[in-house]
Amino acid sequence: MARIPLLQMSGISLTFGGDPVFSELDLVVQPGDRVALVGRNGSGKSTLMKVMAGLVEPDHGDIVIPPGESVGYMEQDPTMEGFATLGDYASSGLEPGELYKVERAGEGLKFDPSRAVETASGGERRRAALAKLMAEAPDLMLLDEPTNHLDIEAIAWLERELGATRTAYVLISHDRAFLRALTRATLWIDRGMVRRQEQGFDAFESWRDKIWDEEDQQRHKLNRLIKSEAKWAVEGISARRKRNQGRVRALQALRAEKAAQIKRQGSAAMTLEAGPKSGRKVIEAKGLAKSFDDQQIVRNFDLLVQRGDRVAFVGPNGVGKTTLLKMLLGQEQPDEGSVALGTNLETAVFDQTRAQLDPEMSLWDSLTGDPEMRVSGKADQVMVGGQPKHVVGYLKEFLFDERQARAAVKSLSGGEKARLLLAKLMAKSSNLLVLDEPTNDLDVETLDLLQELLDDYDGTVLLVSHDRDFLDRVATTTIAMEGNGRATVYAGGWSDYVAQRGDVFEKKAEKTKASKPKVKQESQPKSGLSFSEKHRLEKLPAEIARLEAEIGKLEELMSDPELFTREPVKFKKATEALVERQEKLAAAEEEWLTLEEKAEEA
Predict the structure, then answer these.
(1) Rounded distance between C-alpha atoms, residue 598 and residue 590, angstroms
(2) Is the domain defined by 531-601 classed in CATH 1.10.287?
(3) Partners of 314 in the beta sheet?
(4) pLDDT for 83-141, tens place per residue?
(5) Hey, what CATH topology would domain 1-70+140-224 get?
(6) 478 to each of 17, 187, 472, 494, 557, how far by Cα in Å?
(7) Domain definitions of the chain by residue range
């Protein structure tokens, strides 16, 4: 017997005065569905979710929710007028006997129900909205970036709750590990079209790439057909004009088809401008201790950061990660101990509070008004990597269109604000990069690009993040801040840390699971490799192939016997590049052999 959908959308069309966001969209959500909703920043994910929740009215189409079924939406910016505390808001609409659900969600999500609404931060308000939705337990939950403003422990609690629930949900998130663990189907928004695959997020990227490859093949065939038909039109039309008007019309139709094809949005053209090399020793901390009132941030903490290290700081919200980071940068004085900074440091900071962005400024003024980016006497240019660029051209590299250049920063989405901040950051040279929660609101493709840039960055990185997948991809060292002044240094990324301290997380999971059924957790790889080593082993063949291709091109260039006398500077640069890539290739091959041997020994 066919199931009755929880929600059915038919022929949905929506515009906001310009190009259509959706056109003739059909979508069904069934009972028990666990759906990832994915797409580029600005593709319309949040808008579609608001249409599903009935908060945005489509221009055309029908939305059907069967009688007796309920749909709940986690508001990004909840209105709390009329409520004195976060708990009052979160428990509104619940029966007295259900109030314990808000208290339980409050413990798991780490928000204080007694906090006054007027003094609550945006993150606390979002956590209260999430707790309200979890306590109400509608038949269909619509969750838009629920892990933003949650620390790793709270994310793990939410992951267990959603893993155990029978409630259907549609989920938007940038957290790959969260999506992989929870979803069984994927909705992909791409250029106004919504596709569905009955597999979870883990299969998304291969599915997406296959569709894009098919599109490219079709486009190539269409281009060849147009070229062939156009050649016929030029060479033979005059002799057969009357007989072949149908063929001319067919050529016009082909050209119209090509014009109607919607171009895929490319990746942001991000590049990290590496400054001069710093000294080998970047930061050395000895015996650090710091307290605020009754809270001890660190005690007797030692750390040596060397050039090229990727150091991640993890721990619950409020434990003092940012404070420790400021002490290591010399911006905050410790109560005890010392910090010595290395030589020749050029620091660039990505601030989680977005404090570097004035919400009232336009994007144009935000860039041209930055003293470090200003070009003297040129109001329409910015300095990028030591070279002037037109401000609109530079914004386009970060996927902003010309109309947005004069828009206010406050009009941007969270992901767009993050991209603007990255545009400011990447215009400046640095050899020490400080990233405080850089992954919030960024789409999967931009996160991939950022990770690749960090892999190639010829400097040192200090990173604060709650994104477990991103930590595994980037970090070579993890500093776990566990409260009461405990800050412990571990080798590797998040999974390496968990493998070494698994007992801690097992106890916390036991403590917070209450009466919920046990949820099977994702196991470590059966091989002798850690998660980050396994990920690295999978990446190395492509990296080796890329280096071999680059070496081949350089060798071909240098095979010109007159290159040295004709262009000595170019010859010198090519020689240096060849040596560098040969060294990298040798290192990559050695690393691959080492990891392969370790995997086979298990």
Answers:
(1) 12
(2) yes
(3) 480
(4) 999 999 999 989 888 888 888 888 899 888 899 999 988 888 989 999 999 999 999 99
(5) Rossmann fold (3.40.50)
(6) 48, 34, 10, 7, 42
(7) 1-70+140-224, 79-137, 281-512, 531-601
281-512 and 1-70+140-224 share a CATH fold: yes
Query: What CA–CA distance (Å, rounded) separates 384 from 407?
Result: 21
**Strand arrangement of the beta sheet that strand 34-38 belongs to:** 71-73, 140-144, 168-172, 34-38, 185-190, 193-197
**CB contact set of 527 (below 8 Å; sequence gap of 6+):** 534, 598, 599, 602
599 Cα distance to chain centroid: 30
- C-alpha–C-alpha distance, residues 195 and 522, integer Å: 27
What's the pTM? 0.68
Q: How far is residue 595's CA from residue 536's CA, in Å, rounded to a whole number?
A: 9
Distance CA 307, CA 60 (A): 57
Each as own residue / partner, the long-range contacts of residues 487-490 (CB below 8 Å, 24 or more positions apart, any chain) are 487/298, 487/301, 487/324, 489/303
Superfamily assignment of 281-512 in CATH? P-loop containing nucleotide triphosphate hydrolases (3.40.50.300)
Place of tokens 């883990």: 202
For residue 155, the surrounding DSSP H or E stretch is: helix 152-164
- As averages over each run of 10 residues, the pLDDT of the chain (602 residues) reads 81 78 88 92 85 92 92 86 92 88 88 89 88 92 90 92 93 92 92 87 88 72 61 52 54 54 55 80 94 89 93 90 92 94 90 76 90 82 85 85 87 82 84 87 78 86 91 91 89 85 52 41 51 78 82 76 72 77 81 79 62
